[in-house]
Structures are given as structure tokens and as C-alpha cells.
Amino acid sequence: MAIEDDVLVVGGGLAGMTSALQAAREGARVRLVSHKKSTLRHASGLVDVLGYTPDGELVAEPFDALATLPAGHPYELVGVDSVRDGLALFDEVVGDAYYGDHTDANALVPTHGGTVKPTARYPESTAAGLASDPREALLVGFETLTAFDAPLAADHLDAAGVPAATRGVTVPFPGDFRADSRVTRFARALDRDEAVETATGTAGARRALTAAVEPHLDGTERVGFPAVLGDDESSEVRTTLERHLDVPVFEVPMGPPSLPGIRLERLFAAALDDADVRRTTGNPVVDFEADGERIQAVYVDRNGQRAPFHAEEFILATGGLVGKGIDSDREGVIEPVFDCHVPHPDDRYEWFVDEAFGDHPFARFGVDVDGELRPLDADGGIEYENLRAAGGVLGGADFAAEKSGSGISLATGYAAGRAAGEAV
């Protein structure tokens, strides 16, 4: 039996969840279909709007810089109002778990590599660590967590000219942890405050961690840890560490798996549940059915059987090259779900430049859309009247270089969800 909805969203990342949530707020019956877990768990948990111009200039006030973006950029297509509306939706979802809504200016957040990322919204757990803060900082790494070299990160931050003196130290994480332990294992130990053996006897993991750090404080005014300070009980863990160390404690965003990203995913999942958005996960979309100018259904693979999902409106939010929402082979570049046209040079040598960190054309590959985010075919016509695209699958922006990925997902997700919801 076919499953019918008003709006069906393909893709479970930030753009897909934002689209689904806004469409539901417009009164539509919404279903979100995703094959894999949200890409948020691989992201830093920071939410950018625009960190750098296409020319590589650092952006202090992102909304002032939006007008300078080239024609066809996703922000140019949806307009400033959608950028603000997308951020407003985000702020409603996350509540006081994120900071940054008090200003249009970018905050500068240190990362685990010792770089500084300009970002519009940042987790409350990182707030005491902003690079603009002049208070002396101590970064703490763990011997069994090789992904974060605290002394090296501190050196990089000093070289970058941040106003605060920053030191780094590496200590053993309390307890018996393997050298390849995942960040979730450290977080679980702190969540549960597991009993661990120390030189002076048995103690809870939180108190044992502060005891390992205390000899290195030496008058420091704040302490940063890799973002492993608990998962379910992260606020309580951080509060306990602050009480024992008697200084503010902050988390430094890490690479995947990212606990701040997982926490953000949970906040959006709860919002989707509250909005009665139905979610079908773990099954790929393998085909679709169209009747002339409109899509009628998508087919999802369920243990080798094709299950049809019918809807009035569809939103494509499967991500870009990294998430395989855009794919390529020797024959060209494709969008694999609806076979939307992806403009690209026929000569593969024109997809990139010689410099490793140069301005690579492939970074901007994606689906072309009209002002209503409907994908366009090779002749500039609309592919399907009831299909819209949002997020990383869109062309025209180098998300990584611009530091604009989250903002584009929110703005275009909001705009696509609103348009689809209004259309039913």
C-alpha cells in the first residue's frame, strides 16, 4: 500500500530537517526519508553563515557581506530575509543550548587544530573559549585521545595572534582507556562519573580528571578540553569540573564523531517529533515516478522490496559531494536521486586547479535552481514543478572555503520547506 504525505523530504541533514520542520509549521503532513544518519554527527556543531568572502577575506559581519556574493549563490537566490528566518528557526529549536543570537557579528571559536573559525552560532559549552576573550587559557589534551594535541593547538593559536596567552598540556585521562578509544567512550565515563583508580585511591571520573589538571593551572583563567565532556549529562559534567577547578571550562570542537554535532542532531530530532514529522531512516531512495512535469512518488528499498512513498511536494536535501548527494565518475557529475542536471565542464581536467588549496571548480558543483529553488535542466527549464532543492546539493557556493554550509542549509531549507508547505 502506498504511503501518502503532503511533503516528502529526501535527506536527513541540517537542510533536510529544517525543510521538514518548516513545511510542518506551514500545516503540511510531512515525511522525512533518509538513508544514513545525519551528517551533523560528523560536523563541529558550529553554525556558520559566512566566514570568508569568495576572495578569502575574513568576514566580521556576515549580513553586510551577503550583498557582495555572486549571482547564483544560494544566499543570493533566497535573499537575506530567508537567511534570518532560517537562523530564527534554528534559535527556536536549540533554545539556550546555543549562543550568538544577540548579534549579527561572527564569533571566533578555536578548533582542535588550533585554527579559529568565524561562526554565527556556537554551543553554550564553547562560550568561555572564544578566541576574542583576553583571559589566559589552558588547553588540556589526553594521552589516549591523539586527535587533539593541546600543546600544538595552543602554539597555533598564539601564532594566529589571539589576544589571550594560551598554553597546552597533555594528561592521562583517568581510568584504563585504549589508545584508540572513541570520543563517545570518554564522554560516557564522565556522564556516569565512573569509578576509576588513581594514585591516591578510587575516585569518580570527574573528580579524578580535575585532580590531573589542577597541578597545571598556574593561575590560568579558563580551561579548555576536547569536546568529550559528557553526552547526555554534558552540562552537569562541565559544571562539576568548573566547581573543582574554580575557573570557567569550555569545550574545543573536534572532528567526527562530534559530540556537539550529535547533541544538535538530537535537538532537531525532538523538534521534528514535536511537529509530528514522520521519519523513515536507514533505507535508500532507489527510484522515483513522474508524470510529465510532476513527481508522483519515490521508491525506497526495504530489504530488496521497493516501497512507494507518494506526496504532493518533494524536497531534495541529500548533501553535496561529501555526502554523495552529488556524485561523479568518468562519465560526468550526477545527482543520483532525481537525475537533476548538474552543470560541469566536459573536460575533467577543468574540474580542479593545480594548487592543492586553490579555487577548485568542483567545490561549487551542484544543482542549479530558480528563485523558488526548483532544479533546472540543461536548457534552463524547470525539471519538475513540485521538486525543490536545499542545502549542500545546491551549486554556486564553496561551502568549505566560505564557511557557509550550515547557514546555507538553514536558509535554503527554510525557504524550500515554506514554499512546499504553502503549495499543498
Written overview of the protein:
- By secondary structure, this protein is α/β, with parallel strands linked by helices.
- It has two domains: 3-98 and 262-423, FAD/NAD(P)-binding domain, CATH 3.50.50; 112-252, Rossmann fold (3-Layer(aba) Sandwich), CATH 3.40.50.1860.
- The protein has helices at residues 14-25, 62-65, 74-78, 80-94, 150-159, 183-192, 205-213, 234-245, 259-274, 399-402, 405-423, and strands spanning 3-10, 30-34, 98-99, 107-110, 116-119, 122-123, 137-142, 166-171, 195-198, 201-204, 222-226, 249-252, 278-281, 285-291, 294-302, 305-316, 327-329, 332-334, 387-389.
- Strands 1, 2, 13, 14, 15, 16 and 19 form a seven-stranded mixed β-sheet that branches.
- α7 (205-213) packs across α8 (234-245).
- It is globular.
- Keywords: Flavoprotein, FMN, Oxidoreductase.
- This is Anaerobic glycerol-3-phosphate dehydrogenase subunit B.
- Residues 6-408 form the FAD-dependent oxidoreductase 2 FAD-binding domain.
Chain-averaged pLDDT: 92
CATH superfamily of the largest domain: FAD/NAD(P)-binding domain
Tally the helices: what do you get? Answer: 11
CA radius of gyration is 23 Å
> Oligomeric form of this entry?
single chain
Structural class: alpha/beta
Unreliable runs:
none
Beta-strand percent range: 15-25%
Q: Characteristics of this structure?
A:
424 residues, FAD/NAD(P)-binding domain, 7-stranded mixed beta sheet, 4-stranded parallel beta sheet, 11 helices, 19 strands, 27% helix
